[in-house]
């Protein structure tokens, strides 16, 4: 019985790794679409979002099966519960990648600067997401804590972009387009928040602490 249970836990880890990679690709594709004005890449993000949603449903089904059939002990119970919580945030990250891609399809090429900071934010959040998922798989407390600490970097970059774009709105009659780019930056910042929440659930799984 325990051997089958361990096999199912390994399957759970494998599915979470796969979902994490799919979301990383979605973020990368939305950034390629933004930076390269690649309409095809933008459309591909939306097309692949259903696969992310389907992966969430598969993981949720497996978690419920483990909870109902195996009656896990406390540590495993937290591990499975954390997975259920994590995939909700992971799915929302995928949604934000779609939101960015949708905006790419409607906004013209950006002439307002700060694209370097937006690219830096996207690099940071991909690393944060990867590290959050890895910390869950490896049950690594320090990696999870590092994700939470790095969220301050994302917040700082977002504030810099926001100040700059708000100032530019005052200087131009293309305020609506600038607001779209500000919204893109906000979506990236929100992805960082979701990665931080995922790391928080990893800490809960390891310690039982949900501060």
Task: Outline the low-pLDDT stretches.
Answer: none
| Chain-averaged pLDDT | 90
- Percent strand equals under 5%
Number of domains: 1
Secondary structure layout plus pairing:
Blueprint: H1 2-36, H2 39-70, H3 74-104, H4 115-138, H5 141-171, H6 175-207
Give a quick rundown of the structure:
With 211 residues, the protein is mostly helical. It has helices at 2-36, 39-70, 74-104, 115-138, 141-171, 175-207.
Any overview of this molecule?
- It is elongated, with a radius of gyration of 19 Å.
- The longest helix is centred in the first third of the chain and has 35 residues, at 2-36.
- The model has no long low-confidence stretch (mean pLDDT 90).
- Helix content is 88%, strand content 0%.
- The chain has helices spanning 2-36, 39-70, 74-104, 115-138, 141-171, 175-207.
- The chain has 211 residues and is an all-alpha fold.
- It is built from 6 helices and no strands.
- The protein has a single domain (2-207), classed as Methane Monooxygenase Hydroxylase, Chain G, domain 1.
Kindly list the characteristics that best describe this protein.
single chain; about 210 residues; 6 helices; elongated
